[in-house]
Specification:
240 residues, alpha/beta, Rossmann fold, 6 helices, globular, binds 1-O-phosphono-alpha-D-ribofuranose, binds uracil, glycosyltransferase, EC 2.4.2.3, transferase, Nucleoside_phosphorylase_d, Uridine phosphorylase
Length: 240
């Protein structure tokens, strides 16, 4: 009998480290485990949402897919925080940038996440919560970028419930408001962390741009993804 009461993560608490890297794509979780973790052990494969635990620089770290969108991220983050005993989650995601001076291959660290999702209104709170990164994880992510010599941007991102937004003016309005990029999970992760009294930060790699039409070659895409992964792993060491 597994300790998680969940139908979606089948593991015992001791199978999972205190800090978990979460890419949207479970195959990116497998890639990170195989490329960076020593002796990775698969702890979850329900719905193919692959989760592994291994060691990085001698410390125990887990990596597991979140799926796409706030509902999927919230389900897994909630269970990891409240049933599995995880303390800190780092989203390792891709994003589309809004300002012309944020280029493909660069990293955005999400200080906060504006959202068109109902997630921030669902809690029994006298105010609407503001999805915000944990300050210590945010500053650790910045320091990791600086130590590794990886360029970065820090600011407010958009977590959208839709990839194909029927409001065609949405990216223009986001850009006018000074938002840095669009993705689909960070607001959910930050609200789950806050309401579970845990920690989170999103470290995003720019895979597309909304206004410049820049594109990455296959080599550039891999390099930028590995920058994001290495910054995330270095940040995770502080919470292992
Ligand atoms: O690359 P991931 O982490 O999945 O993130 C981005 O990519 C997906 C859309 O293609 C959404 O999940 C979005 O947030
Ligand atoms: O434009 C983009 C790129 C990546 N992920 C998104 O959600 N949107």
């Amino acid at each position: 009998m597994f300790e998680t009461g969940s139908a979606c993560i089948r593991c015992n608490k001791e199978d999972v480290a205190k800090v978990v890297l979460m890419p949207g794509d479970p195959l990116r979780a497998k890639f990170i485990a195989e490329k960076y973790l020593e002796d990775p052990i698969l702890f979850n494969d329900v719905r193919n949402m692959l989760g592994y635990t291994g060691t990085y620089k001698g410390k125990r770290i887990s990596v597991m897919g979140s799926g796409m969108g706030i509902p999927s991220m919230c389900l897994y983050a909630h269970e990891l925080y409240t049933q599995v005993g995880v303390d800190a989650i780092i989203r390792v995601g891709t994003t589309g940038s809004l300002p012309e001076d944020i280029h493909t291959g660069e990293i955005v660290i999400a200080q906060s996440a504006a959202t068109n999702s109902a997630i921030a209104s669902l809690y029994d709170s006298p105010v609407k919560l503001a999805p915000t990164a944990s300050w210590d994880m945010l500053i650790d992510a910045v320091r990791s970028c600086e130590r590794l010599g990886v360029g970065y941007h820090v600011g407010q991102v958009v977590s959208s419930d839709v990839f194909y937004n029927p409001r065609e003016d949405a990216p223009v309005r986001y850009k006018e408001l000074g938002l840095l990029c669009v993705e689909m999970e960070t607001a959910g992760l930050y609200i789950e962390a806050q309401t579970s009294h845990k920690k989170a930060v999103s470290i995003l790699s720019v895979s597309d741009t909304f206004f410049t039409g820049e594109a990455l070659s296959a080599d550039e895409r891999e390099k930028s993804f590995t920058d994001m992964m290495e910054v995330s792993l270095e940040t995770a060491l502080n919470y292992a």
